[in-house]
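Annex B. Sample input.
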Amino acid sequence: MSVLCLSVGMAGSLLIGLYIFDELQFDQYHTRKDSIFRVTSRYDHGGSEYRSAQTEGNIASVLTDRFPGVERATRLSPKDEVFLFLDKNAFKEGIVYTDSSFTEVFTVDFLLGDKSSCLDNPASIIIGATTARKLFGTNWNQKSIIGETLFLDGHIPLTITGVFEDFPTHSHISSQLFASVPSEHEEWLNDKSKVYTYILLGKLASVELLERKLLSNRGLFGDLNTYLHLQRITRIHLFSDFGDENATVGNIKNIYSLAFVAFLLLVMTLANFVNLYTAGSFGRMKEMGVRKVIGAVNGQLRTQFLLETAIITFLSAIIACSVILIFLPDFSRITSKKFSPESLLDLNIALLLGVFLLVIPLLASAFSSIYISAMGATEALRGNSKGRVSVFGWRKGLVVLQFSISAVMITLCAVSYSQIDFVRHKNVGFDKKNIVTLANPYMLGSVEKIVGFKNKLLTIPGVSDASITGYTPSQSRWGIPKLTFSARDESLGPAVPANWLTVDEGFIRTMGIELITGRNFASIQENDARSIIINETAARQFIDNLREKDPMALELAIKDPKDSVYAGYKVIGIVKDFNFGSLHEAIKPVIMKVGLHRFEIALRLSPSVDKQEVLRHVMAIWQQNLPKVPFEYHSLEDRYDQLHKSDSAASTIFSVFCILTIIISAFGLFSIVTYSIMGRTKEVGIRKVLGASELGIALLLSREFGITLLMSYILALPVAAMISNKWINDFAYKIEISVWFYGITALILFFITCLTLGFQSIKAAMANPIDNLRHD
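Annex B, continued. Sample output.
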């Protein structure tokens, strides 16, 4: 039993370790990782603040020209997935436009081409090894592909100038295509573009000094309301909380929580192992006495205990690694990681396993050796009861520790499950069910063709609404953040950072967004060229009191960055708040203006139709119009669930390891109950001879453990409350942690206690008193 419990505990801790170390490895591969920073911006105007991972395109040149500590700077402008055409074949990939210093700032391993000059000329492109295999076959490196021309979206030529090794999976930059901007499309990457700016600092540069200079020289960047800050590249994945993020970010709070879970599981496993091993050791006191009689010294006995526990720990480690290999595919699926058997060879995992093999035998053997090997030979042969009592107090303390940990884990599990269930079923302000999105309608070409294509889709039975849009849930960037004023003069009121969406007249109906007041956009878009529809949050920001002022009288304005002219828009409607982003974030002001964003077409399907049959009709129309472009669709509900993927993974991990802690705790309680009852065998026999009932004896044996477990629950309550509240406060929309969470914990602990204590106590109470009195 001790080997089984130890194996399970070690396997659980190592699995959590795999996940944590994997998350901590992001962007660690860069040669000069400690010198690479992303420049972020904070817009502060009249008390309204917006923090963005983007800057304006001119920042990079200003930094290299005016700040001596900045060695290199580069800009990244990611675009939505595009189609590359080589001959008659089309391939879909994401592309990033950048400049020639890209390969100097980041660590990029080149397989083909000149790394130093590959992006010097306009319309040059470097491709990843995976894309090279996709375009030119597995033997691409034996072909002369440098100088080959790819056609972006079928008509923009880009010349291949290099092939690089794919970026590691632990990189927040993961594109397969990096290109310099074609001369005829300079607007894609210019001084007014919103880009991601990265800098490489010199070896002697001071980050703190540069930060201070950035704040004191704001006028150099053109806007005194914009503050620039530096973010280490190695902190982007886990610590970033900026808007307009270009990376799939994790959550450092989940890492802290999982590390705490792994620590608790390991402590519980160790406590359980000590309990089980000590119980077995006291059954060997006569053996120790005989060894002492024939000349064994205390040091030899301690060494024996240490070797025994070391062998048990080593066997447990082998079993734990075997268990991990069996469940590794399932663990990879739960966490959306790509773990392999080679992952166990990671240095961090090897060190963690080494700590287990060293610390567990030392601690486990210490309890037994201190109390048993220190006894005299006569005491050991007689069976020393004082030693038993002393160790029993220690072991009871370990049971308190185990069940306190179990109580914390059960509470965390209940809270995390309830929060994720709340996220999945919360009314987010739009109806995400029965919506599919079709990618790449822009490949049709003109606006007229795209609108005609949408109208054809609306003739399919089962398609109730359609919208040409680029703004749907799960996108890392949706809408364009703009400082918005309540008048055409910024001095009349503070600016509010708002997300501006370009939508068509079918967007609100297709997404199932409720129009509270006013009207929708007209089908003839020119009639509403200067009209906007805002959400409730935007209305509250711009109007002091909706009951006293008419929201339909609002006129909002944005400042054109090119010529500083204010463009005014009149509010024609207000919609109910909707949340396209994660529920970690509060709903932001949203302003919709009419137009066509040709990235996707969203279709609302009737609930009663056969979804696959409708999609077959959609695909047939697609193939008639775009025979060379693959048909691709997504479920909006599935995509929205992806926004909370890391939280769902953490909740699942909590649940799994909660079950493990309960099992290990039950084993620990079972061992100490068994040991305690064995020490009171004669007492039970005497009580039965004197007339005690079996029920009375069972209650007597269970009482002290019931008090012990009540202490465990009381000690665990404040810790569980603190951790649960800390985890759940990371969500803008969250459940209320009520008393019933702690009630569930108490009920589960009570059930485990009754099951474990009841079996052993009743068994002892029903034993023949004559056999008990004969017990030696």
